[in-house]
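sorry to bug you again but im stuck and you know this stuff better than me. what follows is a protein written twice so to speak, once as letters and once as structure tokens for the fold. id like you to explain what the token line says about the fold, in plain words if possible. anything you notice is useful, everything is just below.
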Amino acid sequence: MQGGEVVDRFQRLVNPGRSIPKRITQITGITTGMVYDAPPIEDVLPDYLDFLGEGIFTAHNLSFDLNFLNAELERVGARGLENETLCTLRLARRLLPGLKSKGLSRLIQFYGLQVNGRHRALGDAEATATILQQFFSQLAFEHEIETVDELLTFQHRSYRTVRRVPNHLKRLREEVLPAVPDRPGVYFFKNGRGSILYIGKAKRLADRVRSYFNAIEAHEPRRRKLMQQVRHLDWTETATELDALLLESRLIKKHKPSYNRAQRRYRNRPFLRLDATDDFPRLSWTTTLGDDGAEYFGPLRSRRQAETILEVVSRFYRLRECDDEQLGLGRRCLYADMERCTAPCEGDDGAYAEAVERVRRFLTGRDRSVLEALKARMEQAAAQLEFEQAATFRDWHDEVERLLDRQEAVAAPVLEHDAVLLHPSPEGGHEVFLVRHGRLVETHCLGAGRDEAALQALRTAIEAVFSPERPRPDGFSQRDVDEIRLLAHWMYAHRDAVTQVRWQPEEPPGALADRVLERLRSPAPAAATS
């Protein structure tokens, strides 16, 4: 290496005068046959010493390689190496103390390097050279080391004198971190001009924010770069982690911080739409939600998933796909002949209504029988050597299973998702979420003591939120849809801890409040749906 760049390479196979052990062949790929005609070490060493010249002999775990090389030089009657030496393992221990393993393989993984010929001499040497290049920039930034002499001295410095924390991080650690609360919330990393670099949410702000300041050198490159630019830290407390999740999403889309790669824009996610106003409902997908009497399920991850679910429903539940005009003709169509429709156009004895109800159960995660059917089709296709068809059924099975797992947590169409969610809080009380038409409306935090005043305040809130006089939304914005998605995701992630108390429109809100308070007053409400 010259000027930090690789300018020349040396590589030779050597005949060691004995067979290559099987274990070494498994590691390196070198066999006895490959070295049979290779020159012995006494013929190779002079060429290597000419190549090395007065260069700095550098290796990862230097003493290991240096001892082998000096032993061979002594065996052929030559003097040991007198070159300056540099150990990249020593550098790693001083520059990356937060990295648990500092072996060559771990450093290659840490820096995301692509190495050809790993465990061969040249491949490992080139990997070491690339890692040394990574160290150069860190040494210049953190320790102002620019010369070879400074580099050689640095590798022998004590650990205590090496880890000089940059002034801006030292100030934040000493002045700001002690004030960060141990509460849920959203945090903001800002640069010197006050512009937001990154927005994140946390269940415990103190723990999450401190993690950025611990073992910075062991973070992935993007986070290390972020910490180089951070000059200010702010935060906003929220009542619960769910509130923090929703607030984080809104703020990222508003400010679009440069270090936030996800959630920067609203996406038109598809919903499955079951037109319950029709005598013979059809299932379709749409990216809009409206109070039009239809039942909406979702949102789904992608249009591809929506198309897959429609295909599965058509094949296994046999809802019609024709339009109303074709239905009115009263004649069977191709789908009926393919047994993908119950043919209500020819008359209906209740079979179609039964199929619609099965689809409802499927879309709320309560009917999982289709998974077994898809698995059986996959195995049948594979047995008949129709592997492409088998792969299709496998992919459908995976898509449907993902949908059912998430839908089971909500278990209702979006606009009919009216419930009170009870989630144990870290302090021993409960977080209570009032959900109306699929969206979070209010949050209440109750302590472990089951304070009657707080319970009565919750009763008043429930009666107001679930009042029949509360108008249904005329439409849903992209923000509304995004928050419906985030709520569904949170319910799925916490499905083992959340108790869901459902409200039916014919039930007086006071009766719902009675059921909620009864559960809260019980010793330990279990995760369930009622």
